[in-house]
Amino acid sequence: MCKKHICVLFTLLANGVVLGLGLRLTDQDSSLNALEQLVKGNTISMQRSARRSVGEDQDCNFTKTGMVNANDAKAYNCVIENSDSQAVRIEVNSSKALVDLPILFVVKQQKSVLSWAVPHIIQNKYKYDVVSHTLCPEQSNDTNPKKINVAVTTSSDVSVKFHLKVTQVPNFKLEMDKKSSIVVTPSQSQYYKFKFPDGIKSVIVKATSNTSLCAVVSLQSINCPVYDQFRNVEFTGVYQTMTTKAAVTVEREYFKGAEFFVVLVVQPDDKECGGKYAEIQPSLKYGALQTNVRSKTINIEVEETYASTEYWRPVFATIGIMLLFYLVTGILVVIASARQVESELRDGEGAAEQKGISTEQPLGSMQHESYGSTGPSPNHVSHGGTGTGSETRRGSASSVSDEDDIDYLEDIEHEKEVYRTKAVLFVSDLSRKDPKLMRMKYRLYHWNLITIAVFYALPVIQLVVTYQTVLNITGNEDICYYNFLCANPAGVISAFNNVFSNIGYMMLGILFLLLVYRREYMYKKELQMGNRRSERCGIPKHFGLFYALGISLFMEGVLSACYHVCPNYSNFQFDTSFMYIIAGLGMLKLYQQRHPDINANAYASYACFAGVIFIAVLGVVS
Question: Are 75 and 152 in contact (CB under 8 A)?
Fold first, then answer.
């Protein structure tokens, strides 16, 4: 085996020596030509090559019409002076290109390469013969003119006609308070540049359109490549889908360099906007594909808005207005307390003057017979006659007969509804049930409501915090799509003004609870001092429903704020749940004011409220 290998090696060396000698004996140019032909023949046998005609450098503002096939490629060069502030747009069109043998366009810049095919196929369903792209303005410290190369190739053996248009984008930089109208299609997306002027801290980018085709408005950093296709526009920046309106608010510090791209993309169908999957405009059948003709004109306008550092004025103004309610209420409470003390002192002086004077009068001496009386009523002051107003008030409120001074009627066996009468009858006497028992039943309303509020609010808060976190991380503002036309962000909250606007519910709810607590405290204090007036006048006083109303008002503010953190149809019931409870408790309180002995069961009442809320949720979902 070794001998055989040695023989082969010597044979190869000998052939090499002979070849070298032969080359020396021939002409040098002839040998080089032979080698070139050999290399060329081997290349053709391995891979088919195409001839490429290259145009001369020119300004990036021209239109070309040409033919291209597998053996004849085209290339065009152009030069742009200031590539970081100007943008070049390339539009290509070919109605003869085949889906299986498309025309390929490759654009080479200093730092990037961009390529696409015509016809352009989207979602394996829609076919576009016209495609255009805006080249990303490359930022560089090099101030020399930048060269752009456009190569046009195809694998078709038959020549295919194409149109190429290269232009510099007019008005590529958006200006404040100036409306720009832009036409966009699924194969012809657009984007423009905006830079914050000096002194402007926050702006809102508004997009409006007369057509309801689904589109995407995206704000992206000044980086290349720009994600301006429907399949990748959601990869970076902040974006919203839109039909007729969209608005994105950003602050100066959000983007590096205080500048960003405004990218506009039309979706191939309306699925992303919640519409029908099929396109709204008609489509032309093209075999298994459809030639989509969706075109949308979008008006873009950038306006200045409040920066988060300027919110302190409206915030403190709103809180100040709410505190005025506290101040006015406090003044009224002080005045009412002073009048009550003065009235008590005056009643005390009148009682001292009348001390020792018997108030007993025979029944016949009364000008107006007391209800249910059959004999003289001790300790009773006449309500009529020539008595003064103060005497009348004392007779009806202070100098009332004791509850034990009652007359049993003989006809109790015949009329079951009347079993005793009093010399002086009060509204509270119409209440037949024990006030202490009723008070315990009404307390169930606010204690149960506190439990409901805690278990209802905690998951809601957790949910909206998660929504806001996802929005901040992904930039997908479609998660909370009711907010942004009037939103003013602050910190991590994308609509601080909408959230803070519910402070009125919360502060006035607390004020209402304080008033109820004061009223209950004064009532208990009067009872402890032996003043029976509060117990005798009016129906028995129960404060459970009032406390429940105050808690409901406060929780309406909390849950409405949670809803406005991230409003959408799935959490709309957060904003309305306690509205239903407030309305229901209000009706119960009105009924209780006229029917003191009838108490709706707290558990049954809240179960009914839950049923109403459930029906409201079904209405929102379906």
Answer: yes
Q: Are 113 and 91 in contact (CB under 8 A)?
A: no
Cα angle at 516 between 512 and 522, to 5 degrees? 145
Residue 143 is encoded by which pair of tokens? Answer: 């101030």
By CB neighbour count within 10 A (0-12 exposed, 13-18 middle, 19+ buried), where does 72 fall? Answer: middle
Q: Which CATH number describes the domain made up of 48-169?
A: 2.60.120.380
Sequence-separated (6 or more) residues with CB below 8 Å from residue 445? 544, 545, 547, 548, 585, 602, 605
Please report, rounded to a whole number, the percentage of residues in the chain having pLDDT higher than 70.
73
pTM: 0.71
Domain 171-305 CATH (choose: 3.40.50.2000, 1.10.287.110, 2.60.120.200, 2.60.120.380):
2.60.120.380
Provide the β-strand partners of residue 132.
91
- Kindly report which listed range (20-24, 164-168, 170-174, 559-563) carries the lowest average pLDDT score: 20-24
DSSP string, 140-187: -S--SPEEEEEEEEE--SS-EEEEEEEEEPTT-B--BT--EEEEEBTT
Write down the domain spans for the chain: 48-169, 171-305, 359-425, 435-621
Count of CA atoms in the C-beta half-sphere (13 A) of 503: 15
φ, ψ for residue 532, nearest 5 deg: -85, 0
- Gap between the Cα atoms of 107 and 116, Å rounded: 9
Maximal C-alpha separation, the chain: 163
In the chain, the amino acid numbered 286 is: Y
Question: Is 126 in contact with 292 (CB distance < 8 Å)?
Answer: yes
Residue 366 has pLDDT above 50, yes or no: no
pLDDT of residue 56: 59
